[in-house]
Design a protein that fits this description.
Length: 343
């Protein structure tokens, strides 16, 4: 399966020769803009994930290159701080969270940019800073590839169905880039059974579009540790009140029933037992949603002719560790670093 491979960040993805030549620092702010880099047509393997300092295969972050090459006093290019985190893969998120070993954010950005104007919510300010960082640092690197995708249209090989949890960055944990994944996210990575009374056909529509129109070659259901939807299912109390969330979570009831059944072998992790009932349900839910997928007509048809495969995945957030489901064994197996998961 091509999607579930060792992770690299979106920023690392753009730095590969996958769609562009090697990165070169931008011109100083007051100089003439650099001409856009020519679009490369070759595709090369993904670089390895972030490595410890001194490792021969370490991937350098553009922020470090800019910091070293910037003229003194350049307000647009902060220099690397002493003692900063060695994991440069976190730096693209700095407009949202400070990953520099607890250093004050004021050290990394001009004070003027932190001013909250009257009527401006801090959340909107964070969003604006993040978008601005993308336009300055990332857009020049991906513009050629996005222009190609705009001309040719999308042809993703994977439908990736996962939870809406903010801790899951799909392109990071699958080392994918623009045009690779058709992503569907919802609370609990649930796949309603066809014909279920949910009042929401969005998941079924996305499955049909991906399988019948985009002709994806595989579908992955990805669950994760500490899923709030699974916790809610376990702690649900009988109530006549039906909020939108409660109605949606009814699609997770078959997962609860599967976990409680003595007729089904419990989903498990290789090497250790599930930590608690929440993790057990998170694993069981992936298996159950794969069963729901098979009930969709478009999926069943493609499975029958051998042109589609289904995969289960579990991501442990606290360990940054991915597991792939071996369905015949009923076990999720840890994916090791740099392991080739292709057939």
């Amino acid at each position: 399966m091509t999607a579930c491979v060792p992770a690299r960040t979106d920023d690392q993805t753009t730095r590969t020769a996958r769609a562009h030549p090697p990165y070169s620092p931008p011109s100083p702010p007051h100089g003439p803009p650099s001409p856009p880099a020519p679009h490369a047509t070759g595709v090369t393997p993904a670089p390895p994930p972030c490595s410890p300092p001194g490792a021969g295969n370490a991937v350098r972050d553009p922020a470090e290159v800019r910091a070293e090459s910037a003229a003194p006093g350049d307000p647009e290019t902060p220099r690397a701080e002493p003692g900063a985190s060695s994991h440069s893969c976190c730096r693209p998120w700095n407009p949202w969270r400070d990953h520099q070993s607890g250093a004050p954010r004021a050290q990394h950005a001009p004070a003027a940019r932190e001013t909250h104007h009257p009527g401006h919510h801090p959340g909107g300010h964070q969003l604006a800073r993040g978008i601005g960082a993308f336009q300055r640092h990332t857009a020049p690197l991906v513009r050629g590839e996005l222009a190609r995708l705009a001309r040719e249209g999308q042809q993703p090989s994977q439908l990736f169905l996962t939870c809406a949890d903010s801790r899951l960055v799909t392109s990071m944990i699958t080392a994918s880039g623009p045009g690779d994944l058709f992503v569907v996210r919802n609370v609990g990575n649930l796949v309603p059974v066809p014909g279920a009374e949910s009042g929401d056909d969005s998941v079924g529509a996305a499955i049909e579009y991906a399988v019948d129109v985009l002709k994806v070659r595989s579908v992955t259901v990805c669950g994760h540790s500490g899923c709030g939807a699974m916790q809610a299912l376990l702690s649900a109390e009988a109530s006549a009140a039906q909020s939108p969330l409660r109605r949606w979570l009814r699609h997770g009831t078959p997962s609860l029933e599967r976990m409680a059944s003595t007729q089904e072998s419990p989903a498990r992790l290789t090497g250790r037992a599930p930590a608690d009932s929440v993790e057990q349900l998170c694993l069981t839910n992936v298996v159950q949603q794969l069963a729901h997928l098979r009930a969709h007509e478009s999926v069943a048809r493609r499975l029958a002719d051998g042109s589609l495969t289904l995969h289960g995945m579990y991501f442990h957030v606290g360990e940054a560790q991915a597991y792939l489901l071996d369905e015949p064994a009923g076990a999720f197996t840890q994916v090791n670093a740099l392991e080739d998961t292709s057939p």
